[in-house]
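Collaborator request, handled under Task 6.
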Amino acid sequence: MFKTYNAKFTKPKHTRTRAPFSYQGGKYREIPLIESFQPDSFQRFVEPFGGGGCMSLYYCPRHDVHYNDKWAPIVNVYKCLQDERQTETLIDDLSKLTPSKELHDEMTHKKHPELLHTFYASKCYYTGLRQDNSAPHLIKPRLARDKEGNLIWPASIIPKTKDLRMYTPMVKDWTITNKDYGDVLEQYKSDPEAFLYLDPPYIEKTTTEYHNKFTIADLLKIKDFMEDDETKCKVMLNVDYTAWTRETFANLYKGCYPIRYSMQRHYDTYQKYHLILTNY
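Structure tokens returned to the collaborator:
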């Protein structure tokens, strides 16, 4: 019953675009597999848990997009990129940053504008530059030392700016909101032309990783929404494979696939499985 697929051996039908910043839980590599389970037709692509946004970036050339996330800083990044003038200001501000302990201290204590802090923090948290999770309220990068024992602040800790301009024409027509996911579900419940892709945080994750709590109650709420006869929109739910999710969502099951995570250090590399669940 539970057939396993592998995203490594499938190719997307269209060109993928990486998110403008690093963010945990991105589905860039899984796009081909997710695409193979998408509805046959739909007009609107909706992400109630937008995160890094690579799924919205993939579908936006061919569909209307509604990007939503509960965490305001990343929502504000995409709102900034919708405007050419604001994007140029962001590029200019990022290009002025120079790696140093002084800059890092300023970022840690949020003495720079939110957009700069969001980009800088993403480099430390989600690209292997963060040392550990012992102090989640601080940005704590892992740094090398020179022969004299002095810390080296790598250039890679500063976000790249050269490609930010390309996002403006892609996202300028998006609907971008900062709502609770439940509000977005209700907005499209009766819309048969909407395809809602749900990639929620793992259950019981806290603010240290996803900036909000997501519990079993939330997952059951989504299950009831998907199984409700009055739900006319098409819904795909992407969750981690556990004995509980497998049995609880058995009637919605479409497939599962392996995913390998590498968090900060090589010995943190581990493999899990994700489920693809749909109401169509």
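The cover message to the collaborator said: "Residues 128-137, 205-210, 263-268 have pLDDT under 50 and may be disordered. The beta strands are 44-47, 64-68, 144-145, 151-152, 175-177, 194-198, 234-240, 253-261, 270-278. Please let us know whether this matches your experimental observations."
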